[in-house]
Amino acid sequence: MGRFASTVEFYARYREPYPPEFFEKVAEQIGLRGVETLLDVGCGPGMLAIGFAPFVGSCTGLDPEPLMIAAAQDAAAEAGVALSLIGGRIEEFPITQTYDVVTIGRALHWLERTPTLSVLEQILAPDSGRILICRASGVETPETPWVKPYRKVRGAWASGPAEKDYRIHPSEWFRDSCFSAMGETSVTERRQLTIADLIGRALSRSNTSPEVVAGGQEKFEAEIAAALAPFVQEGVLVEQIVARATMFGYLPHTMTA
Asked: What does the buried/exposed string (b/e) look like for 177-191 if buried means 16 or more CB atoms within 10 Å of the residue's CB?
């Protein structure tokens, strides 16, 4: 069983979403014309691939977890989106074509850097090819005082890499490679959600997945509910989500003539 196998039923439903405006803004910034080829690395249930699909000519999702591939297939069908799906890892991806756009969402910290960079150098289209490192995350503001106690409970139960390891900056990851940052786009969205939503989000993360908290899941959920209860107003909490895309392209001196 893969690390994310037990998170599948929670991932697409409860993870921080990318607002529709995010995809529109990124597509406009990098000049998508509806004819490009896109590869979404570590696609999970297809959140990025499905979001960008209307702006490109063809879209392919890649993920090593079979259950995530199945979830992406179902989500694409529900969204009415044509999506090709491949099971596997980018480090072992066959070099059979190039892609105009490569997206990597919440998977960057799971990738083996050296072999991944080697593959990216071979599959990203020259000149106009772009790599988009995307993430959507809740931020702590005066309006969201529940964030800190929520994270504290999750941190107490977490098993695996510390969350700070998940937050490697894309520019650091690409340091000393043939790719350089070419800009960043962000969209902020204010939303309402419930305690049940935030319990589901906790269970969608690999370090507090149902497999990790097995045997104590009921207690885990109760502790989250107790930590959040003081902040609930009229049955809901407010959150602020920032969706970002950092764009990378080839360094000029690495381009072939």
From this structure: bbbeeeeebebebee
